[in-house]
Amino acid sequence: MNLWIQLKMHGVHVPHHKNTAAMPAVIMDCPKSVTIPMSMHIGTPARPLVKVGEYVKMGQRIAEADGFVSSPVHASISGTVKKIDSFLASNGRRIPAITIESDGLMARCESLEPPVYHNQQEFLQTLTDSGIVGLGGAGFPTSVKLTVKNMAKIDAVIVNGAECEPYITSDTRTMLDQSRLVMEGARILQHQLKAPKILFAIEDNKPECIALFEKLCAAEDAMEVCSLPSMYPQGGEKVLIYHTMGRLVPEGKLPIDVGAIVINVTTLASIARYLEHGLPLVRKCITVDGSAVKEPKNVVAPIGASLADVFAFCGGFKAEPKKVLYGGPMMGIAVPDLSEPILKNTNAILAFAEDEATPPKTTACIRCGRCIGHCPLRLMPAEVEDAYAAGDVEKLAALKVNLCMECGCCSYICPAHRPLVQTNRLAKAKVAAYLREQKQKEAAAK
């Protein structure tokens, strides 16, 4: 069934580069060590439970959630805790992390078994214990996302299989190789959330996935496939809700406020796997690709494995990598060091040779308005750039820069190659700092 809305949100058409779409995921060899950050999710970092010198087994909880919006962390290999220290992450922040030296056995923690739950509250606690977070990139703790006070507000659960970023095919392989787990996860959520319907949102550049899930949904109650045109950023939460349900998420509101819950397809499969086997989130399917990679493939890697180890498993490099990214070329983050680890929400690592890594020369804005015309949320990046350069925080707030989802459409479409999305990020931070300062002044005045 095609529920494409006639008046669509805007975006851009990018080259797909889905080079690994036909490659089933391969399980990576056990690395010699892993470095597992305590913050791989939105919210408070997890609190370590182990000590240096302690022996741990795969699946053992090594850090506990420290607050409601947090997530526990589990050992992805068996071995000895060698270090508990902070490391400089690619986002510039120092994050506490636990380094485990492997014993080569990948011995599983004996206490792991399929969880038992009898009601929704116990189900949500089970999800918290699993360490599962949003695996599409955001990393929001899944148990928190699914904590809905009034379940009657839910009109649909949207399973996000759009995977609109170029190069990335890990979700595609989840849909093709783990369709049983995806469907089981959908049934579980449908029951626990009392959702009237499940919508599988898949871009039309994945005809195999669409055909498979149309066949699977035909045997289910209130489950259907939404075949959506291939457009970036089709997988953005607000874009997806509009293009499947025809509903706009208002400023300052959440998807549940318009009757929707959006969950990534790999997150859904991970929920079903945990409930079936009891093994928490300790490994992740990622796409390894880019012009510098010798053997692009989809890899199942332990959380905390270094990028260097993952690239080595893919044959290393055929050209010197001039730029390495966590994620895709549109929203990915540049990685300064190959010692950086695979995170829970890493869905790809890309390495590009010099000819693709060198950015084009930036020239003056020609006031063409393309950035405005292609922004999914109809923001005005060129105006934001001017206001930011002028230090006009009030104008930045009036331009609603905080609504920016940082999809990168503006930078991609700009003929002058202006770094618009980067400016938007800086502008958002400036507005946030200004609002904090205003609150402090108001509090002090009382």
TrEMBL record:
Q: Does the keyword Protein biosynthesis apply?
A: no
What keyword terms does UniProt attach to this protein? Answer: 4Fe-4S, Cell membrane, Electron transport, Iron, Iron-sulfur, Membrane, Metal-binding, Repeat, Translocase, Transport
Q: Which residues form the 4Fe-4S ferredoxin-type domain?
A: 356-385, 395-424
Query: According to the UniProt record, what class of enzyme is this?
Result: translocase
Which gene underlies this protein?
Answer: rsxC
Instruction: Please identify the protein, giving its name as recorded.
Output: Ion-translocating oxidoreductase complex subunit C
Where on this chain does [4Fe-4S] cluster 1 bind? 365, 368, 371, 414
- For the keyword Electron transport, the answer is yes
Q: Which family does it belong to?
A: Belongs to the 4Fe4S bacterial-type ferredoxin family. RnfC subfamily.
Q: Which cofactor does it need?
A: [4Fe-4S] cluster
EC annotation?
7.-.-.-
How is this protein situated with respect to the membrane?
Peripheral membrane protein
Its localization reads: Cell membrane
Which organism was this protein described from?
A: Candidatus Avoscillospira stercorigallinarum
Q: Which Pfam families match?
A: Complex1_51K, RnfC_N, SLBB
Q: How does it assemble?
A: The complex is composed of six subunits: RnfA, RnfB, RnfC, RnfD, RnfE and RnfG.
Source domain of life = Bacteria
